[in-house]
Amino acid sequence: MQHQNMNALTNVDNENRVVLNIGGIRHETYKATLKKIPATRLSRLTEQLANYDPVLNEYFFDRHPGVFAQVLNYYRTGKLHYPTDVCGPLFEEELEFWGLDSNQVEPCCWMTYTQHRDTQETLAVLERLDLDTEKPTDEELARKFGFEEDYMRGTVSWWQQIKPQIWSLFDEPYSSNAAKIVGIVSVFFIVISIISFCLKTHPDMRVPVIRNYTVRTANGSQAWVLDKTQTNPHVFFFYIECVCNAWFTFEILVRLISSPNKCQFILSSVNIIDFIATMSFFVDLTLQKFASHLENADILEFFSIIRIMRLFKLTRHSSGLKILIQTFRASAKELTLLVFFLVLGIVIFASLVYYAERIQTNPNNDFISIPLGLWWALVTMTTVGYGDMVPKTYVGMFVGALCALAGVLTIALPVPVIVSNFAMYYSHTQARAKLPKKRRRVLPVEQLRPHHPGPIGAAAHNNNTGTPNRRQPPKMGQFGASIVALCPKNVGLHSNPAFMLCKPEFQPKPATIPIQSITNQQSTETKTILVVPTSIATQPIPPVNNISSSPSKTLIIQSTDKAAIVEAKKGTDDTYFL
């Protein structure tokens, strides 16, 4: 009797157990454990699922076994921990597959888990900075400059051919040796223009103004008078400015004409500065020519100070400057906080030193008002210390010491954050420079795993038919990333048609794909027509005609050498798109 009871308990225990084969690693648990978290994939396991193997009495899922160990522990303990040996996006993808919320990660793992989000944001920023120095392909240039249709047709005009070359020559200084020479010339003129702008204000570089005054004498004669009160820059600087601005004007026009996106080019802050700086020279030249008699014309020269802003054009030639500017943008919150505490400290210590100096009688008191104290507090907190204003009482000196200490602490606190941001951007830039841009992905991630359409709750209904996912035919690559449309009207048995391969928005371009056989695979979600070599066809080969008539079909064509696959879904006008 006792032996029978033990057998009964063993049978009940075996019935409650469930075996999960995840990527070749078997996991055993109880069905009650999987029921702890409802509305998830594991809580709805049934033997009718395509993942169930009745021979081995197990459920097979071709997923990451390491992540699943944490998923299963979450069912057991109710605590979800992040494995440090996997990447964050992979962990999120696995949780999404099993129907779990990533926000349930425990606080002890949250900082490590969210690091990939910061990395993704940093990489997105670096992508926008356009730091790549690798030469793009012809197809990428055609897409960038908007003549991809002509490129696919093979009808590219001479202007479309040289336009990307001109743009690269003037805007991408590392694209070729000629572009490097143009970049060096551009930097040379920028430096010469800035040096000329500064030197022409030096007294030794200026000459007195010579004016023709009418001397009122008895005979009304005229005399040349040397006016030493007003001076002009030497004429040599004028010629330098003419040559430099001629180059800048030529450069702006060429870059504007060859720009792939003229609106983006015009709205660029660096281009706006360059345009205003160049126009200021021509405005100044026009006023000197036609309105030289204007009084107080020197104020117009003040606007020429924007020419110094041409230094920002150097960011095109230095990735370090781009990273530095982006560092300040990323540290905007910390810099704003720094300014706030500086202003707060300046106001407080300016008021304190004003009243501290008034406590004792001091005829040499420099702090006659709080606004003057603001200037003293600013230069003290920033550790500049001009010495033009100093407290002369003991109380004022004590306030000055506190002001200096507060300034050091206030400025030092956000500096590590700024340095950390710069180091982060710089390290990612260096790593990105070593990463090959033209990495060939043999198989997209979407094709590596079978699709599980529909919500988790409908998984039991969507997987009732078909073979287990581990026995599905393999997909071995992607055929022609730029060839994305297939336009056959009828495909018959053992036919070898000329498929139309192109992008959906362009006219088809004929291309022939050899076909040996056609195999049908039926499922409740999609109807797949898989074209494979006869040697690996596992089902009878029925004739397939007018495949474009069914809106739910997906056409998959594999070349006979097993080298590539094209998958296209039905679009408009009876065509199939990737």
From TrEMBL:
Q: Which GO terms describe its cellular component?
A: axon terminus; dendrite membrane; neuronal cell body membrane; postsynaptic membrane; presynaptic membrane; voltage-gated potassium channel complex
**Transmembrane region positions?**
181-199, 265-287, 335-356, 368-387, 394-419
Question: What SUPFAM superfamilies would the database entry show?
Answer: POZ domain, Voltage-gated potassium channels
Locate the compositionally biased regions of type Polar residues: 461-470
Q: Where is the BTB domain?
A: 16-116
**A GO biological process this protein is involved in?**
protein homooligomerization
Note the CDD domains from the entry.
BTB_Shaw-like
How does the record classify its membrane topology? Answer: Multi-pass membrane protein
UniProt feature coiled coil, ranges: none
Q: List the keywords (alphabetical).
A: Ion channel, Ion transport, Membrane, Potassium, Potassium channel, Potassium transport, Transmembrane, Transmembrane helix, Transport, Voltage-gated channel
The places in or outside the cell where this protein is found are: Membrane
What molecular function terms (GO) are annotated for this protein?
Answer: delayed rectifier potassium channel activity
The annotated region (Disordered) lies at: 448-473
Question: Sorted alphabetically, which Pfam families does this protein's record hold?
Answer: BTB_2, Ion_trans
Recorded family membership? Belongs to the potassium channel family. C (Shaw) (TC 1.A.1.2) subfamily. Shaw sub-subfamily.
PANTHER family membership = POTASSIUM VOLTAGE-GATED CHANNEL PROTEIN SHAW, VOLTAGE-GATED POTASSIUM CHANNEL
- Would you tell me the protein name for this molecule? CSON005276 protein
Q: Which organism does this sequence originate in?
A: Culicoides sonorensis
- Tell me the gene name: CSON005276
